[in-house]
Amino acid sequence: SGDIYSLGQVIAWATGVNPIPNVSPKVVEPWSGIVEPMTRLDSGSRIQTIAQLLVSLDKMVRLLGVSSWS
């Protein structure tokens, strides 16, 4: 869960948001749908596994209209 949180912070940084430790970053769509559940302060309510992250990424990609990203 800690690695997922850290990756969420890195994604936030890559989108132009300066992450603050122990604060969920506010990022723009479509990234907010991924970063927000990755960086929730309550570790039990965060994305817990890479498999869950991949499902969320797949949903985001489909919403963007990308037919295949793998």
Quote the distance from N terminus to C terminus.
24 Å
How much beta, percentage-wise?
under 5%
Number of helices: 3
Helix content: 40-55%
Please compute the radius of gyration using only Cα atoms: 12 Å
Query: Main sheet?
Result: none
Principal-axes geometry comes out as globular
Number of strands: 0
Mean pLDDT: 85
Order of helices and strands: HHH
**Low-pLDDT residue spans:** none
Class derived from helix and strand content: mainly alpha
Descriptive notes:
- The protein has 70 residues and is an all-alpha fold.
- Helices cover 49% and strands 0% of the residues.
- The chain has 3 helices and no strands.
- The longest helix is centred in the last third of the chain and has 14 residues, at 50-63.
- It is globular.
- The mean pLDDT is 85.
Note the topology:
Layout: H1 2-14, H2 32-38, H3 50-63
Question: What key attributes describe this structure?
Answer:
70 residues, mainly alpha, 3 helices
Short recap of the structure:
The chain has 70 residues and is mostly helical. Helices cover 49% and strands 0% of the residues. The chain starts with a helix and ends in a 7-residue tail after the last helix.
